Amino acid sequence: MKDSDFLIFIFGLFILLLVLDLFLFFPIRSLFLWKKEERKIFL
Asked: Which UniProt keywords apply (predicted)?
């Protein structure tokens, strides 16, 4: 395996993680934060 192939592989993996983060974890995180904010408002 060449170095360039390895770099492309790492880069692809990084983008995949970013996409997964945006589509899966971001909504969950924002919902969690929203619940926290809601709690603060009620307190």
From this structure: Membrane, Transmembrane, Transmembrane helix
